[in-house]
Batch of 3 targets.
Target 1
Amino acid sequence: MRISFLCTLLVAALTIYSCKNNPITGRSQMSLIPETELQNMSAQQYAQFLASNRVVPTTTGNKDAVMVRRCGDRIIEAITKYYNEKGLGAELSGYKWEVNLVDDKTPNAWCMPGGKIVVYTGLLPITQNEDALAVVMGHEVAHALGKHGSERMSKGMIQQFGALSLSLAMANKPQVTQNLWMQAYGMGSNVLGILPFSRKHELEADRLGLQFSALAGYDPRAAIPFWQRMGQLSQGQAPPEFLSTHPSDGRRIEELNKIMDDVVKNYYRPRKS
């Protein structure tokens, strides 16, 4: 009983100690794992993922791969400029951005710490255009910059390992830790349960993602028809993987409509061709 109580106190103390303010979201967040560890783990997992999946190269002139890379580069450029203007350039320290399209019919996309981005070919028939693609990519980058995966990973670490560090968890229970990572960052597979982002995370990613895509010169109003199309996919059947982590419903579209005028007015500057 005493040991259990002490463990509870230790976890509570760690939780309080590990809470830090995120300047881009404006709220305090729990993060048990140092950013450098997250970025190192991200680089390893990203390399493994690319090695085990078919990456669509840009060198062959594939128009979809070229579009994804162009869209990603523009968003990265806009975010870097925005962070520097806000005096937040240090927040992107260690980021080594990568953008890849993989040949997979699953409608999905994600971004890991350090700017490791993947878009699946199965998402493109739903985005239908580059503006909607930018909405999705901005949203996924916002999850990373908002450190939402880190929050989910930290909570999962406490539940699974208590006070164990990420490196020790990988050494002692590599498969459990890897599965937890994939769940936290939306890289799930058919054998893994996917953890949905919280409503708080989704609203933050919607707001920041729209701002990022608009700053890159993409029309944020493409978000509404995109999420309507995503919502139609799940009618009468199991939702696709992307919707398992990013529920599409009337509330999301309602919230997007609330912020749309502000984003268009204060962030959207159409890119000159």
Note: Confidence is low (pLDDT under 50) at residues 1-17, 161-167, 189-194.
Target 2
Amino acid sequence: MRGLSFRFSAKIRPFLWAFALLAAASGCVAFTYTAYYAEKKEMLSYLLQQAAMTADLRLNEIFVRGRDRTPQKALMEILKAERGMPLTAIDIVKAREEMQRLPWVKTVEIERRLPHFLLINLTERTPIAVWQNQGVYKPIDSDGQIIETTVRKLNGLPLILGVEAPEKTPELLAFLAQEPELLRRVKAGIRIGKRRWNVILDDLDNGITVRLPESDPASEWGRLARLNKTQGLLDREISMVDLRQPDKLIVHLKEYKKSKKKTVPKPDLALEESL
């Protein structure tokens, strides 16, 4: 196969050479411009620091507002500020960008308060639940985002399990909160097949599993609250309530193991029939 080649007429060649020279000149100008202003910026920063020293605009104290879970040490390592240094020597833009990437930080603002102070205003992310995935526990914030840090205790927050469960957690807790008495008993939410929820009440190991439907789970959650208020449904010896069918209610009774020391009476089987 023959290689491709291009030939230009003698009339076009001078314009091509002129264009090439212009492009090369533009590159040189751009490089010179960038280098020039980089040098000027560095010089200006130095002059500002000297002016701050002359005017006694030195850092004496740092105030942090809104910090609860964010380690103060992490903030100071990013800030790289020392007592007595010029306030203008602190790159607050870069520091804000780095603080924004800390796990608990939602928003951050840094202000110089002349003549001697620096103010850091934090808004931290609020945990609403804890996601368990492969033995690792991470908080979920109010936007359904995973906070990239691990926790060892639930601290009263519900446990969330299942694929893609975190992003659906705010929606789950929103309709569960419509029934405050039941919400206080919620220990966990399990996302089933990326479609619906099972909710665990009272105890993670031996509590009551509530199977909610894929469509309109809030209505069925309200139905459960009414049944519990009128009939004391959840105070009975049951292990599961199935609400997936709007015209039916399926209840499973707890199974008791026989004990050698004492005899536990069998639950009333008529209970399931009456419900």
Note: Helices lie at 13-54, 72-79, 92-99, 165-176, 180-183, 217-231, 270-274.
Target 3
Amino acid sequence: MTNKIRAIITDLDGTLLPKNGEISGINKKAFEYAQQKGYFRIIATGRNLYSSLNILPPDFPIDYLVFSSGAGILRWSDQKLLFSRHLELKETQDIARYLWNYNINFTIQKGIPDNHHFYYTDIYPLHPDYKHRLKTYAPFGTLIHAPEDILDKATQLIIILDAIQIRLLEKVKTDLAAYSVVRSTSPVDHQAIWLEIFPAGINKGTSCRHLLNELGISCGECAGLGNDYNDVDFLDLCGQAFLVNNAPIDLKPHYKSVASDRNNGFAEFIGKL
């Protein structure tokens, strides 16, 4: 017997928010319908808090925001930060030193709520996606020339791997297994591979589980919708789990499917519950 749904979790970019688009009126109405059904409405995004608040207006019809891939949780009604985690300064410098040895460029996002501010490196020819990120957030970036230039704790480190460096993906994940290493696809070009390094145990799934526990909701009473590898952690918690049709092909056999981000897949998802 299927559990009654009490909460829904959805990703943002590529799920609700198409590339170069906006959240449709149909999908927004689906959030309002979810409220009428009595569901707690949760967005779980890889975006930092600053970026999320630039996309979602204060009156957007949700209850909670899980941001920075689980490093923080915000209660939407009063914008209160309920939870945050960070890497200590020594941990951050140690990870940076490791990446430096492999000539891998990376950004270091500072602690929540200011994790739109970051350090960055240019020790290797810059990937176009990396260049775009630096240009977009130029006012918030500080170039560093050595790990010792890092002076703050970090929410996460972000690596963007090029076609040559992609061979290092599994090695980095193995060597940094003491931390949470999360793979995702670039929200910019939808092709580049990102690796994000967080404190141990931090991902969208663990933080969504923490929030559900606080709300007194079992995972079986939750339904989830995503589009990428970094959504798997919360999708695998849910009693019902769906992907939008624009998700990577290798993920599709494992989940139910709805229409793409551009074709109001979220509204279809809500209608299926």
Note: The longest strand covers residues 154-161.
